[in-house]
Amino acid sequence: MRALSRDTTPAGALIGASAPDATGMVHLGLGNFHRAHAAVYTAEALALAGGEWGIAGFANASDRVAAPMRAQDHRYSILELSDEGTRAGVVDVHRRADVVADDPGAFVSSVAEARHRILTLTVSEVGYSRSSRTGALDLESPRVRADLDTPRSPRTAVGLIARGLTLRAEAGDPFTVLSCDNLQSAGRATRQVVTEFLQHSGAADDVLDFVAQRVSFPNAMVDRIVPATTAETSAEVAALLGVTDGAPVRAEKFSMWVLEDDFAAGRPAWDAAGAIMSDEVEAYELVKLRLLNGSHSLIAYLGGLDGQPTIPDAWGQDFVRDAVLAGIRHDYLPSIELPRGFDPAPYVEQLTHRWGNTALGDRTSRVGSDGSTKLLQRIPDAALHALADGRTPHLLALTVAAWIAAVSARSGFDAGAIAAEMNEPARQSLAAATRGARDNREHARRVLEGGFLPDALVAHRPFTDRVADLVDTIVRHGARAAAKEATAAAAAGTETR
Ligand code: CS2
After folding, report:
1. Cα–Cα nearest to 224, from 34, 368, 363
2. In this predicted model, what pLDDT tens digit does every residue of 92-123 receive, in sequence order?
3. What CATH number was assigned to the domain covering residues 281-492?
4. What element of type H or E holds 99?
5. Which end of the chain is more exposed for a tag (fewer CB within 10 A), N or C?
6. pLDDT score for 92
7. Which of 413, 409, 455, 461 is nearest to 435 (CA)?
8. What share of the chain is helix, strand, coil (3-state, %, to 5)?
9. Protein residues whose CB sits closer than 6 Å to any atom of ligand 1
10. What pTM was computed for the model?
11. CATH of range 23-277; options 3.40.570.10, 3.40.50.720, 3.40.50.410, 3.40.190.10
């Protein structure tokens, strides 16, 4: 079978249109999510409205995606899996696929190049180098400190963006940095860390003025469930398209993008392609980060501890479903001022189908990975809202407890093979913080007080006590028992005062 390329793409398989050779955007984080989300909107926008919007793509560190894309004329396929069946299509909007770690200077000069007008980011929550305790740029991180010492040769995403903008400031061409990660107030948060980086690295005033006045950082809510590629993905693509693809992506059918229309130097016609331009993006971000992502974390940790390899397997367990729906009802929904005209009932109904997508086969270990940074976007503000209201957010406490049990297990407690597969960058610091704890509750308290969660939340004893109790229940009686206990307590409406 022939390999995917410009010449072998089957007629009718192209999604949207091919980009022109000229690149108008730079992307950092050339992974599956970007390729199944913004890249698809771009392909559709090009088909409807054209424009010089080819993408110069940069992967962070690995050539796993970039190398096959280069070998395939930058094309790759998307395998869409839904109740309606499976279909494959080819995306052709990238004009470059390189690896930043191999040549950071190439990325930096791409950001500075006048013809590039937007930088899109999918660097994941971890990539923003924010402090867990305060949300500001993490000045204690050794990688951030190294970049602040040598800001002309950065390695972190924030340092790289700051360097690119510093060079761009010389000509002063307007620019947009668009975060496509699961962050609350994603644009504002990105502007904050980039500006703090510039300030702490001694940037000149004209650079700071340029970033403040000529660079926009729109907020955006991004949504499409995109699991890791598996060996079957390539086989299914080969069966449907008749070509081999070294870098296919699997994705659900659902896709949503809500953006603030604040682009300093223009944008593709993403709205024509179905993206929603809104002045209520932050409300949409909260809906998505809490109802989808927060619940997703709970499904992943309860499921992982229960030995369920996939999200649909976990979702198929009644105790998981009951806990998640109780969390949405009692803890998340009351914490959100919903966008105008937004009806949560069909949204939640749709989520239940998305989580139940067996063909997609999203893994509990994927969603459970990076909990130390993901949970910060999903739990603390919602929990603070409930606590201020005099309620204990039992299911949010359960999410934190299940995360602790899964990735920072007490000696003598086996969290199981699935939890072991979760990639948790804080594993070592969690182990150091909990070493020598005398019992399950003290173990939990050491995590809570160890700087892994915001100070404002840890100050609430009813919350930390609840987490400690639930960790104890998980270790002694299992995740099912803890989930049932928290679900029942939420239904009973236990008050904190
Ligand atoms: C998931 C997200 O990894 C996670 O924690 O919750 O990747 C989720 O699949 C996407 O945000 C869906 O848009």
Report:
1. 34
2. 999 999 999 999 999 999 999 999 999 999 99
3. 1.10.1040.10
4. strand 94-99
5. C
6. 98
7. 409
8. 50, 15, 35
9. 182, 223-225, 293, 296, 366-367, 374
10. 0.97
11. 3.40.50.720
Q: How far is the centre of ligand 1, averaged over its atoms, from the C-alpha of 200 (Å)?
A: 32
**What is the token pair recorded at 68?**
């096959």
Out of 41, 296, 310, mutate this one to test ligand 1's pocket (max ligand atoms within 8 Å of CB): namely 296
Place of tokens 């962050």: 183
How remote is the CA of residue 248 from the centroid of ligand 1, in Å?
A: 19
| CATH 1.10.1040.10 domain locations along the chain | 281-492
Q: Residue type at 392?
A: T
Residue 36 CA to ligand 1 centre (angstroms)? 13
Q: Do 226 and 248 contact (CB within 8 A), yes or no? A: no
Calculate the CA dihedral of residues 391, 394, 399, 402 and round it to 10 degrees: 140
Question: In sequence order, which residues have a C-beta less than 8 Å from that of residue 125 and are 6 or more positions away?
Answer: 181, 182, 183, 370, 373, 374, 376, 377
Cα–Cα distance for residue pair 309/329, rounded to 1 Å: 26
Nearest residue (CA) to ligand 1, atom 9? 225
